[in-house]
TrEMBL record:
Residues 1-54 are annotated as: Disordered. It comes from Parasynechococcus marenigrum (strain WH8102). Residues 44-54 have a biased composition (Basic and acidic residues). This is J domain-containing protein. Signal peptide: none annotated. Residues 11-28 have a biased composition (Gly residues).
Amino acid sequence: MVSLPVAKTTGFGGGEADSGGFGGGAGSSGKKSAKRKPGKANHRREQCPMGRDPDIDAIKARQSLGLPLTGRLTEQQVKRAHKLLAVKHHPDKGGDPELMTRYNNARDVLLEPEMEAIVG
């Protein structure tokens, strides 16, 4: 009996360097997948104070209002958190003026894009 050489197959283009089919292999000339660096957002809106990757001032503002430190926020969440703290700590109701100033500044930092749109 004569034995013929049998080609080794691994599926749809996986494993062989000269495969031209599906799967891409090592020699594929398709799109390069640009990995983003950890902690960096792809789009500017993700870096805004209410976006997924806020800067340090926004993180401090979120912390003072008792909001989550990461993740997206809505305008309504920020306003609700500020209002609850304002009612509790307002100087006219016997609260501390310094705390109220801190909460107001935190609200202004988080709502910065909306405030610029109103002024400009």
